């Protein structure tokens, strides 16, 4: 069986279905990571649905089609994996997620648990602490003046709040970012990024598996709250660690890249920093706009459960469809001046957090972190200047920087 | 085409034309009604599209789902008996004239 198994389709043999524009771009290549916007434009303008020859998958890059696919989860399912790998044909690299990689009705139950653990009410409880730590971080960085906005701010701040909020032990936390980077690389095709990440994954996987257990999670944290829902009978005792794992996978590197995106925007567009400083209540929207503008989570796949017509094209059953969230977030059909970072833009409707039943369950936590950090900057920082070479970080799903050297001055 | 009115906390009434089938939140964002943030884009996940439904209209609205009910507990402004999430109010022709009062804050 292995000789004919689906993994072979990674080496392209199929030609474009009739009428669907065929493109030979690889959205998981270094060239693409360095400048996705030009190729996003090519993808959007080629048609509402395209065929990506390199990986034998359909692609959608316009806002309308991305939104439509996200909001039809029974036709475009997640249970066969939201990466290139089709779980119906290939064993997942780790036990399948019971929320991200699940369909209704199974998804409905697990989703309700995480939605409650990360509810607006839960955010009110951590808000004050998150705010104080953001202010302290900015004060500390103002003393230093020059630093790396990725390591010292975009990583350091979430690392100072998220693991504690989860209830994690101190030791071993250095595994969290490598584990997340692995998870997001693994959604991609079997390229070097994915293969190397999986080869090196054993220690990170072992760490995460252990931290998901009840005895390793401090009372009062999000992790313990999930286990408490097993006592209440909403989930089983076996499911609880898997839901903790979802938060450890998706809750840290995403906000790192989200805050990093916001810092990169404010550093590049001083007029927008000035606008934010003149009205710090724009902080939350300035973060949201950075999510639209940079789309730290660039792509996810779906798999068709039946033959379906999408924008006039017939797609067969069992096909992978790649959604370009980042391209949808700059689709001129949907956005005015899409390539402009505008802290006062009405951002509602962007798909940086997805849309529909799988829309990010941690979005309130992400916004909280982004808002309080940008509010602290708005009040305390007068200027941000890029003071060294900006280096990009390569990941099959996450878009962000490896290094952003900046110099800031106090207000 | 139903027309609906949003009443701001300062008493200013903003009347807008809505489309049958869209939500009150979608109508509000299309017409840039300031008091509706709708951060989650209508997915019943953010509670920033909170409204107080005007007397007499509450019973005529589609019933509240469990997720809406749970989310309203976390709304920034006080929850009242007539609190709803405007993204969950789907507009039909018979809702012409609906009046929704905006809370003093959504965050
Ligand atoms: C800026 C930060 C973030 C971004 C850009 C982001 C983006 C996304 C996107 C695009 C999805 C949709 C996946 C899909 O449709 O297949 C998603 C789902 C998810 N996110 Fe986030 N996320 C962020 C932060 C967080 C945080 C802080 C957490 C947890 C604390 C989290 C946990 C999750 C989980 C568990 C799901 C799966 C939800 C489901 O399938 O129902 N995310 N996220
Ligand atoms: S728009 Fe988010 S809950 Fe209504």
Describe the 3D structure.
The complex is a heterodimer of chains A (411) and B (107). By secondary structure, chain A is of the alpha+beta class. Chain A has one domain: Cytochrome P450 (Cytochrome p450). Chain A has helices at residues 30-34, 36-46, 63-70, 106-117, 120-144, 149-166, 176-186, 192-199, 202-211, 222-231, 239-250, 253-268, 270-278, 283-294, 325-328, 363-380, and strands spanning 22-23, 50-52, 57-60, 76-77, 146-148, 299-304, 308-310, 313-315, 320-324, 381-386, 391-393, 400-403, 405-410. Chain A has a six-stranded mixed β-sheet with strand order 1-2-3-9-6-4, with helices on both faces. A three-stranded antiparallel β-sheet of chain A has the order 5-13-10. Chain A is globular and about 60 Å long. Chain B has one domain: Ubiquitin-like (UB roll). Chain B has a five-stranded mixed β-sheet. Chain A binds chain B through residues 112, 115-116, 119-124, 284, 288, 346, 348-350, 353, 355-356, 359, 361, 363-364, 367, and chain B through 29, 32, 37-41, 43, 45-47, 67, 70-71, 73-76, 107. Bound molecules: protoporphyrin IX containing FE (HEM) and FE2/S2 (inorganic) cluster. FE2/S2 (inorganic) cluster (FES) binds at residues 25, 38-40, 42, 44-49, 85, 87 of chain B.
